[in-house]
Amino acid sequence: MTLLAVEGLTKRFGGVLAAKSVSFALDEGEMLAIIGPNGAGKSTTFNMVGGQLRPDGGSVMLAGKDVTGLPSRALCRMGVGRTFQVAQTFLSFSVLGNVQMALLAHHGQTRQLLSDAAVMHRDAALALLDRVGMAAQAGRPIGELAYGDVKRVELAIALAAAPRLLLMDEPTAGMAPSERTALMALVAGIARAERIGVLFTEHDMDAVFAHADRILVLVRGEIIARGSPEEVRADPEVQRVYLGHSGTRAAGRARRPVHG
After folding, report:
1. Fewer CB within a 10 Å sphere, N or C end of the chain?
2. Stated pTM of the model
3. Cβ pair 247, 236 in contact under 8 A
4. What does the DSSP 8-state code read for residue 141?
5. Least confident stretch, 38-47, 48-57, 76-85, 106-115
6. Which residue ranges does the record assign to the ABC transporter domain (predicted)?
7. What is the Cα–Cα distance from 241 to 108, expressed in whole angstroms?
């Protein structure tokens, strides 16, 4: 079932056309990656879908409802979760406290006294941490964790809103190679088991080609290729403008950070 339908998204910054008639769809339980070189329009497209930017043209449909231009807070209430390139957590809180705060926000209870908040949604928070392999670390201050573990906690925070759609902006940024593989495998497993659609941008091509069901390649604001990892890797135009000349070697070379 189609969860997200994007049609003709366009965005201009002055005289620069950052996204030109970008269209794609995302199904429930599917992992869809957006990749491309610097300045390709990835972040612009991602932020129009996520409500950080209002498009100049086109539409965004979530489960059949027009959500074009709605702010991120409204989208969150409609089942859109998000993680960020730099993890968004409360460093002075424990691991458990961070997830409890996310649950309080989801239930509209952020004005609770701290003494009450500390015991609210404790079981639900522990269950979320168990899903991401962090229950054993629940009592630790989040500032003591390795960065890969912080990213797992951020995933639990995003899941606290019970999202149908999860937007992940360079989820493996700053992580060691083994941590990247483990995190993306975890996300893929959760997405498929719980029918959560995942739209992500990523600079690590190993993570993209290993875990995405489909890939969109943007160059200068336009989609130049789309398809399965195998189809995109073999596409001559993608190899020429982004990956290089050899499919598997190119994936390794394209692991450098890319933005846009």
Report:
1. N
2. 0.86
3. no
4. B
5. 106-115
6. 4-245
7. 47
